[in-house]
What we know:
The chain is α/β, with parallel strands linked by helices. The protein is built from 13 helices and nine strands. Strand 4, helix 9 (186-198) and strand 5 form a beta-alpha-beta unit. It comes from Echinops telfairi (Lesser hedgehog tenrec).
Amino acid sequence: MKLGVLLCGLGRAGATRAFSSWPPHSPLTGLVSASELVGHWTAVFEERGIPEARQSSEYIVAHVLGAKTFQSLRPALRSQPLSPRQLGRIQELSSQRLQRMPVQYILREWDFRGLTLKMAPPVFIPRPETEELVTWVLEEEARRPHAGGVEGSPLILEVGCGSGAIALSLLSQLPQSRAVAVDKGEAAICLAQENAQRLQVHRRIQITPVDVTLERNWAPLLPWGPVDLLVSNPPYLSHQDMGQLAPEICSYEDLAALDGGKEGMDVIVHILALAPLLLKDSGSLFLEVDPKHPGLVGSWLQSRPGLGLRLVAVRRDFCGRPRFLHIRRSGPQRGGGTVDTSSRLQPAPVPD
């Protein structure tokens, strides 16, 4: 399931009008079928300036009827009368959408690379771009030599796990793998643990609260290494971009999962400094970043050769923006110690 604007768009600052003052829509009369309801709520959402009006109404109606998408409903089910209970439930969920609640939170679940994950505010909603990041990780992992002939058995660390989408997706595709997932938010930890249980991979993952931006928290991470893969979709929006967020994001999602500081690099540089302490030789770090960041990250790494990290590839997202980084570690594993994580950077050329 994908919902473009709600998942990956930045809204205009002027979009944050007083939606909380809108009254609930009046009860429906004479509209009894799923198709009629989709048409009705699409018109209401469009009138109120709700993004993705038709998609929102289709997902809500389908959900109440027990389907994931409206298109998957049998034609007969789209035209037959709905019960008063179903009509009331659609009215209730549609009223939440009028309050600019994201569809993912309204439905309480969302699909990520074929996995149905529970969603709950304020835990960050995984975006379609992040599915591309996981796909790239899996492609690179398939090319990696495996010691002892045991394939698909990497040890994975996800930093900033949110709902657990990245780690759980990797575990589902790499049956012999194990993972550690960390996040500083209690709500995220609880939701990721619940999703791991739902997907029955909880015995292969350890999910624990850690704020990696505090170097005093790094020591407990070290016994989990060395890891094969470190993967993260960290907060990477700049302060300027934070001021342009859509109401769906500002009012419901955890803004700390998005705010990367003045340049959007505050959390990224801590992950880069932590990586040499945890990655094994030739281990890989995969990051999702802002399109402005590949050159900045390359410059930051070039100025710190002692870390033993090298930016080896940049990949573009489905919109053609440089969005994903593959960084490889070489040399003996570093010991502990303080690393300069200053994010005052100068851009370097983006690798082809």
